[in-house]
């Protein structure tokens, strides 16, 4: 089973294709299999590394979550595998992780594409935050606690991102359009793409709708 040992845990990843490296990182409560329709298309041009973040899929279970620590995991994975300036695609929590990596390690990635990411819990529409809060009170799930309490990335940090960046959002996303526009404004030379009629994950999870975007030259 392909795993790397980083930060006292094991991260599982699936490697497919040949060419420059591209990392795919899923959202909260998911695993790398959400990209099942996307990976075969990307593998025609890239070596695709689809990773299970800590506490998800086949990676090590954990008791608590922190976006900063999850970003550190992905940095350690890139270094452990010897990947040279990979392209990074992150969905939802994976997008938050990608933003943090690009802020903290400006030369590590070649380009960044994020979908449905927020930089503050308030970026999630209140109509969605309420059921998340209720579910957390009922279950105590630390993944839900993460969504309610993190991240807190200021515009001044986003302004430090220097690599080509694309931010996408669905018109029916759980993350508000105004919040996503704010993210795009804060990142220098960032491109914002709106997917009409799409929800948070409808154009990402078990979908190939992002293939043309991800196959664009970086």
Offer a quick outline of the entry.
With 218 residues, this protein is an alpha/beta fold. It is built from eight helices and eight strands; from the N terminus they run E-E-E-H-E-H-E-H-E-H-H-H-E-H-E-H. It has one domain (3-212): Alpha/Beta hydrolase fold, catalytic domain (Rossmann fold).
Note the topology.
Blueprint (H helix, E strand, L loop, with lengths): L2 E4 L2 E9 L3 E5 L13 H4 L4 E5 L15 H15 L5 E5 L1 H12 L6 E5 L10 H14 L2 H8 L5 H4 L6 E8 L4 H10 L4 E9 L11 H4 L4
Parallel strand pairs: 3-4, 3-5, 5-6, 6-7, 7-8
Antiparallel strand pairs: 1-2, 2-4
Helix pairs in contact: 2-3, 4-5
Number of domains: 1
Low-confidence parts, pLDDT < 50 over ≥5 residues?
none
Strand order of the largest sheet: 1-2-4-3-5-6-7-8
Cα separation of the termini: 30 Å
- Topology as H/E string? EEEHEHEHEHHHEHEH
* CATH superfamily caption: Alpha/Beta hydrolase fold, catalytic domain
- The average pLDDT score comes to 97
Helix count from the secondary structure assignment: 8
Number of strands: 8
Strand portion, in percent? 15-25%
What general form does the structure show?
A: globular
Instruction: Give Rg in angstroms.
Output: 16 Å
- What CATH calls the topology is Rossmann fold
Helix fraction, binned, reads: 25-40%
User: Which sheet architecture does the biggest sheet show?
Assistant: 8 strands, mixed
Class derived from helix and strand content: alpha/beta
Highest CATH level, the class: Alpha Beta
What is the annotated CATH architecture? 3-Layer(aba) Sandwich
